[in-house]
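Handout, page 2. Input:
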Amino acid sequence: MSSGQLPLTIKNVADTAAESEKMGGKAKAERDNRYMKWVSLVALVVQTSSVVLTMRYSKIANKSDLSGAHKDYLSSTAVVMAELMKLVASFLLVLHASNYNLGVYHRTLTQGLTSLHEMKHVAIPAVLYVFQNNFLFLAITNLDAPTYQVSYQLKIFTTAILSAILLGRKLSATKWISLLILFLGVSIVQTPKEVFSGEKDFISSFAETSNFKGLIFIVMACFTSAFAGVYFEKLLKTSSTSVWIRNIQLGSYGFVFGSIGSFYYDLEAIKADGFFQGYNNLVWTVIALNAIGGLIVAAVIKYADNILKGFANAVAIISSTVCSYYILHDSTNLDSKFAIGASLVIAATFLYTYTPSSNGDSPAPSPAMGLILTLSRFMGVRPKHTPFIKNSQTHLS
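Output:
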């Protein structure tokens, strides 16, 4: 080898090393994203189960107090305090992401909160989230826990439709079938056993365990949740702004609009007994869980997507129903129909997240996946031949 070729050889080695380092960094980032996706989903399941139980108990505990010593809290003020708590947590998370460098922290906040272009887009989902949270408090007041849980799963379908419209997302036949299986499984779990035994028809049995007003609030919450969630997902995935800055923006709007709504609708009650009437440790727990939920949902949307978030909520329904049965005595009996429904929900979750390998050959399936694939083929769906179309890249104007 001549001396003239040596610098070129060294350069090639350096380029190869740099390329390998770049590929290694990319692979590590992908692993971190997969890890964060499943961590956020598990956290969402735990949080969703807990918040439903505590919300329901906080509303029925005071009603069961015949002495009237404990006044019920105002749902609108709880929404405001949850937004404030989420706002404070987001400020702290941005500080942590800035490595506690106050200069970087100040520049990050200035860029995220003083830009009219950045702030104007967040107003829409922020207002919708305030409405959604108020609707959910009103719904849990008027519906028992099982009816509340199964009815709220309508948001999975509204989210899927709005994802297709606003994000240009194309769902394969497998995913649509999994959505139907999910809803079927949840419906079986929550349908009263008298309907299956023929003792009562569905309408009369449903009327005995629900309230029409509560169902209206649930439907309204489903639509506001779907639109806000899809719009927020579009913001996060088409912008370089961090998820925590977006949460500060959401929390700022949410706190302002929530406060306006609280004083508008409950002004007389606030004047009479104060903003924090009826508050106790349980109510503060409900508020904290709702605030944490907002941050977890934002992370799920960042690392997964809205419909996968819906499936995490569906799994949480099963666990929270079991807890509701033993703790609040507010759930259906645990019997064979519960086992069937729970199995369908779990199967639908795995079927939705099933992705074939890039070379067209399916990986060796686990026993659970084999059962799911058998079920899907029995229904006429062949996942490994169903293309998963990538999302179109859309940008906000």
